[in-house]
């Protein structure tokens, strides 16, 4: 799949289409099965609270992957993502209800490089607070 975004058409400050992601407990179970991360803080409310958490929390890597969708949806080709990194700053608490946790994710072109790549700066907000710090992806454009 080729990228659908041309480097020549992109400018620093351009906003990527944002997404609203809802994480529910079922998503945590599915991610645990796929990743092998069965830490009880991600599925056992009693355990999570016993270790000082407010409730079950989403896997950090699940939150990171969900935020990365803004970039892959925009560029059209996940293979165009050359680098992607974040710092985990706050947990996403996932209540045991039909709503789950809502994470608002946005991105902006932070740098346009002469080699046909751009750096995308991502923001992921849950419950009014940023949950990923220094979330950046480097993407090769057409």
TrEMBL record:
It comes from the Bacteria. Transmembrane segments: none annotated. Residues 22-123 form the MaoC-like domain. CDD domains: SAV4209_like (cd03453). InterPro entries: Fatty_acid_synthase (IPR003965), HotDog_dom_sf (IPR029069), MaoC-like_dom (IPR002539). Belongs to the enoyl-CoA hydratase/isomerase family. SUPFAM superfamilies: Thioesterase/thiol ester dehydrase-isomerase. It comes from Longivirga aurantiaca. This is MaoC family dehydratase. Gene3D superfamilies: Hotdog Thioesterase.
């Amino acid at each position: 799949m080729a990228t659908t975004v041309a480097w020549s058409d992109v400018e620093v400050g351009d906003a990527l289409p944002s997404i609203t992601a809802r994480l529910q407990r079922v998503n945590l179970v599915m991610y645990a099965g796929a990743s092998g991360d069965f830490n009880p803080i991600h599925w056992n409310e009693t355990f999570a609270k016993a270790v000082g958490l407010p409730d079950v929390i989403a896997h950090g890597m699940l939150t990171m992957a969900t935020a990365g969708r803004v970039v892959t949806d925009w560029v059209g080709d996940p293979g165009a993502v050359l680098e992607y990194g974040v710092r985990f700053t706050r947990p996403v608490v996932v209540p045991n209800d039909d709503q789950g946790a809502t994470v608002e994710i946005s991105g902006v072109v932070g740098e346009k490089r002469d080699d046909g790549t751009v750096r995308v700066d991502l923001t992921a907000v849950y419950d009014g607070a940023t949950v990923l710090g220094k979330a950046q992806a480097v993407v090769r454009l057409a």
